[in-house]
Amino acid sequence: MRNAEVLSKSQTSYERQIPLFPLQAVLFPGGFLPLRIFEPRYRTMIKFCLEHESEFGVVLIKEGEEVGEAATPCEVGTAARILHVEHLDDGRMNIITAGEYRFQILEVQEHLSYLTGRVRMLDDPDTEIEAVSESVTTQTEELYEAYEALSSRLIFAWQPPEEQPNDPRELAYQIGIRLRISLEEKQTLLETIPLEQLLTREIEILTDQNRRIAFQLTARNN
């Protein structure tokens, strides 16, 4: 019961206490992340989340490893909601999670077997979308559509999403999920807070990626 008391203390609309899961992964809101849970500390963490219908924070490892001593997480991560759990006979679990909102870690606590953190939400679902210029949105949409089309020509198993989001924020997150870039580059995107600035950075990346893919396709066909 103490875990629940600790993690529910001082919860507000924008600040809350959640378990933290440092991983070699970057999760965006709207993205899905399957995980195999085998370490005892994370079995305890997932059990808590299931019992209390709590999300947990997926944070890219800044220093350390996924297994062993607690790793140092990056400052910005994404809250993950558990969608499905498969319990295995040996106590391990296979889970499927979905990203819900970005957060910034204000304080990390190490009083439990797993890390917990006081976090501040960076995405407010109750406010209107930040003002983003129509030109930036249109350019992003066009470049992203081209990226998916080019990628499907380059990679046989590539399956573009059936629909492209109309919401600029959802579009930005979907692009972050779909881009084939390093974890460090994805983390930089995740940490870019003003929406127009995030889309502008994605325009730069998409322009470069589309040029590279087009070159690869040309070289392959010659």
Provide a brief overview of the structure:
The chain is an alpha+beta fold and about 220 residues long. The protein has six helices and seven strands.
* Overall mean confidence score, pLDDT: 89
Percentage of β-strand residues:
25-35%
What distance lies between the first and last C-alpha atoms, to the nearest angstrom? 66 Å
What is the CATH level 1 assignment of the largest domain? Answer: Mainly Beta
Largest sheet: spatial strand order: 1-3-5-6-7
Oligomer: single chain
**SS summary, helix count:** 6
CATH A-level architecture of the largest domain: Roll
- Number of discrete domains: 2
> What do we call the CATH topology of the largest domain?
Archaeosine Trna-guanine Transglycosylase, Chain: A, domain 4
Which structural class do the helices and strands define?
A: alpha+beta
Tally the beta strands: 7
Helix content: 25-40%
Estimated radius of gyration: 19 Å
What characteristics describe this protein?
222 residues; Archaeosine Trna-guanine Transglycosylase, Chain: A, domain 4; five-stranded mixed beta barrel; 6 helices; disordered N terminus
What's the structural blueprint in terms of helices and strands?
Elements: H1 2-8, E1 15-23, E2 32-37, H2 40-52, E3 56-63, E4 72-73, E5 76-87, E6 93-109, E7 116-121, H3 134-154, H4 168-178, H5 183-190, H6 195-221
Parallel strand pairs: 1-3
Antiparallel strand pairs: 1-7, 2-6, 3-4, 3-5, 5-6, 6-7
Helix pairs in contact: 3-6, 4-6
